[in-house]
Amino acid sequence: MNYFNKQKGKFNYPVISMGTFDGVHLGHQKLLKHLTDRAEKTGGEAIVITYYHHPLETIHKKTFPYLLTERHKKERLLLDFGVDCVLYLNFNEKMAGMNPEKFLEDVIIKEVNVKEFVIGYDTHFGKFREGDYKFLKANKNRYDYKVEMVEPYKVQNRIVSSSLIRDMIREGSVYDVEKYLGRKYSISGNVKIGHKIGRGIGFPTINIQPSDFHKLIPAVGVYLCEVYVNNIMYYGLTNVGYCPTLKNTGIKEVETHLLDFSGNLYGKDVEVFFHKKLRDELLFENENELIQAIQNDVKEARKFFGI
Question: Which of 13-17, 44-48, 173-177, 210-214 bottoms out in mean pLDDT, i.e. has the lowest?
Fold first, then answer.
């Protein structure tokens, strides 16, 4: 297939949804339920057409940290919600310049032979985002497909969207995110060798390198979290920030102190789930003040988790 990076064979009756699906949040889950229901009723395949990264990177020729879900996790979540196949568009400058008619005919009709569309209220495609539900509906007889639009999902009268969730994470409001995301926000990454400063003051930390450069990191601060290593869960405290009391690097880092753990995790893959922001990152007068603050943080964490 010319326009896709990944293809798993021919389809009998493709039922398709399109979009970035970053977060696979509750709004996406509502859409996926409609998609998989239609595929089941028609004996077809539920197919999601998506991107490795956001199309804006191609259009604006720059990268930025925004991803709610790493690539591997997004695909796993989509498949867990009943999608049969995830196709990744080879979204380049040529595709970015396609008008909706050419995109529909060359990419979707010729390459996938769509039989039904199940799309979100905010689905857009083609140059200047001119392709939408109205466009697809106007062309359904010409190309002999069906099209259904799924209304937005709301929580407390707010439309659930990836942009809304990103704003909450940038503000450090990770506790509220679960109501919109449908699960706790997390970061997957690998444990790298750090400065080993935490070990020297009695609170060793693991320094986590996110597995995706584009991953959105929560606001600077100290968070209560769960950490999974080899499917074993540990409670912990995660500091997102610059550790200004002990370091002068100016580099934003993600460091986690695991409660009731001893050992070496260098090189291990971990996933950190954020429960709640405990406090801001502070510049202390000296090391003793920092140690006292961390001791208080640990007490708060034990109280919160009941351990």
Answer: 210-214
User: Which one, of 143, 145, 92, 122, lies nearest residue 31 by Cα?
Assistant: 122
**Token output for 28:** 């996406």
> Containing H/E element for 197?
helix 197-200
- Give the domain ranges of the chain: 14-159, 184-305
Query: How many other CB atoms sit within 10 Å of the CB of residue 63?
Result: 12
Q: How far apart are the C-alpha atoms of 121 and 169, rounded to whole Å?
A: 24
Distance from C-alpha of 81 to C-alpha of 13, rounded to nearest angstrom: 19
Residue pair 131/103 in contact by the 8 Å Cβ criterion: yes
Q: What is the pLDDT of residue 263?
A: 86
Task: Identify the CA nearest to 239 among candidates 261, 218, 223.
Answer: 223
Q: What is the separation of C-alpha 87 from the centre of its chain, rounded to a whole number of angstroms? A: 17
Of the candidate CATH numbers 3.40.50.2000, 2.40.30.30, 3.90.1150.10, 3.30.70.1710, the domain formed by 184-305 belongs to: 2.40.30.30
Phi, psi of 186 (to 5 degrees): -140, 160
Q: Residue 276 is encoded by which pair of tokens? A: 């709640």
Please state, in angstroms and rounded to a whole number, the distance separating the CA atoms of residues 5 and 14. 18
Comparing C-alpha atoms, which of 118, 107, 131, 149 is closest to residue 36? Answer: 118
Q: What pLDDT does 156 receive?
A: 92
Q: What pLDDT, on the 0 to 100 scale, is given for residue 246?
A: 63
Q: Would you place residue 57 in the very low, low, confident or very high pLDDT band (cuts 50, 70, 90)?
A: low
With residue 95 as reference, give the H or E element that holds it. helix 93-96
The model's confidence at residue 244, banded by pLDDT at 50, 70 and 90, is low
Question: Where residue 219 falls among pLDDT bands split at 50, 70, 90?
Answer: very high
Annotation: CATH topology of 14-159? Rossmann fold (3.40.50)
Rounded alpha-carbon distances, angstroms, from residue 207 to 165, 203, 204: 25, 13, 10
Pairwise CA distance, residues 117 & 17, whole Å: 6
